[in-house]
Amino acid sequence: MRQQVNGLLRRVPVWTVWLAGLLPLTLLLWDTLTGGLGIDPVRDIEHRLGRTALYFLIASLAVTPLLRVAGVSLMKFRRALGLLCFTYAGLHVLSWLSMDMSFLWAQMGRDIIKRPYLLLGMTGFALLAALAVTSNNASIRHMGAGAWRRLHKLVYVAAPLVALHWILALKTFPVTPGFWLLVILALLGLRVAIPRPLARKRQIA
Amino acid sequence: MKLTWSDVTPKSSWLNRRSFLAAGAALAASPALGLTGKPSGFSTDAEPNSLKDITNYNNFYEFGTGKEDPARYASALTTDPWSVEIGGLVERPGSYGLEDIAPDNELEERIYRLRCVEAWSMVIPWIGVPLASILNRVGVQPSAKYVAFETLVRPEEMRGQKRPILDWPYREGLRLDEAMHPLTILATGLYSDPLPNQNGAPLRLVVPWKYGFKSIKSIVRITLTDSEPFATWNALQPREYGFYANVNPQVDHPRWSQATERKIGGGLFGGRQETLMFNGYADQVASLYEGMDLSRQF
């Protein structure tokens, strides 16, 4: 069963993940152009982009636990998931800069320093940017596998920061982002609970 | 106990009136429902937001925390019959009907700017009466210094109240001089129609120089007191929401700047506008706060 699933997955080309991953963006564009957004389309665009970025981040974090727990390998799609996350995160930040803050650089600068939720969000974004620019084979070769792997462990920091950014942006304690923070912590916890050597042993057996 | 029209009307015709009102609500243009307010010199000449904007973008946590929740769920609220309990340090305490508080022939149109603490703004054509007129009618005792307000608690109809998001009922308060200021109104209408439920039907406070959350909705109790009343957001997070909540571009919310605001309805690239001290009503209200340090008493 597991082998069948993995065999099937092996035949799925990576571009299909990109195609599916850009669907939320297409829907958002469609809603924007057809007036399908609410009374405040700026907020809807900004929030939908941010949420989608977080969902792709969680998807990329789920790849390893899925392999260790269920033996299903989505490894070859992980880079696409991570880059999709960064695409949405970038558009989220861009929509904040342009539509929400209309390029008031001084006010944005002061806000980022003074507001914990913005500081967390921007820190998360900077970490994700470092991962995105090194998500290519040339970088892995150039950095060496060990250093590259260490750098990409930054995602364990970025993911909870991003979820906290969402929680702190809201006025009362919100259920949805709280739930996703728990999911992130559970996915990170699974890495500790089921370490790699054990999974290897199981695969050999 | 003061009698209102619903008390002296036979129950059967009263019920008929309710079904008539319900039918009329479907026909928004029905002249029987229309409200007219006399134009007022306090109105701004800024272009009001559309009725669609005003009735679909609301903070009314009794119906949910999303901006769309009130428009979606507030129709469950019964607003007729309705009475307001006025008590505390007043000469004539009692239960007052809407017609007592805001008689049709006293209604005024007040086109006011609204600035939310979340840094967005709208312009809204309210219909209502100055709060001072009802306070004068019930007779404020000399020892009274503050006015406390309370929203209805009815979780069967206000689904947001089934969760302890806030310490229900929603409560707010004003200093007496703020309450008596001619800009402060009790609104019963919007754009020549009775107030939609999501905007605080049937009766809400509007204090245009303060952040929107001070303007409490669906009022059931008004109490005159001699000490600063409980205020819901202030009690939940005093660092973020002061008791005064005056619009002030120099005093930031801890999580965002208040220097600018985004006007709802401005489109994708409508940009931001500068926030004005007291939301642009400084000429009228700044004197109320003379001698106060507004960065501390925010």
TrEMBL record, chain A:
Molecular function (Gene Ontology), one example: electron transfer activity
Subcellular location: Cell membrane; Membrane
Transmembrane regions listed in the UniProt entry: 12-33, 53-73, 80-97, 117-134, 154-173, 179-199
CC annotations in GO: plasma membrane
Keywords: Cell membrane, Electron transport, Flavoprotein, FMN, Heme, Iron, Membrane, Metal-binding, Transmembrane, Transmembrane helix, Transport
Family: Belongs to the MsrQ family.
Name assigned to this protein: Protein-methionine-sulfoxide reductase heme-binding subunit MsrQ
Lineage: Bacteria, Pseudomonadati, Pseudomonadota, Alphaproteobacteria, Rhodobacterales
Encoding gene per record: msrQ
TrEMBL record, chain B:
Signal sequence coordinates: 1-28
Boundaries of every Oxidoreductase molybdopterin-binding domain copy: 78-233
Gene Ontology BP term (one): protein repair
Cofactor(s) needed by this chain: Mo-molybdopterin
Superkingdom per UniProt: Bacteria
Cofactor: record remark: Binds 1 Mo-molybdopterin (Mo-MPT) cofactor per subunit.
Protein's job: Part of the MsrPQ system that repairs oxidized periplasmic proteins containing methionine sulfoxide residues (Met-O), using respiratory chain electrons. Thus protects these proteins from oxidative-stress damage caused by reactive species of oxygen and chlorine generated by the host defense mechanisms. MsrPQ is essential for the maintenance of envelope integrity under bleach stress, rescuing a wide series of structurally unrelated periplasmic proteins from methionine oxidation.
Descriptive protein name: Protein-methionine-sulfoxide reductase catalytic subunit MsrP
Organism of derivation: Paracoccus seriniphilus
Gene: msrP
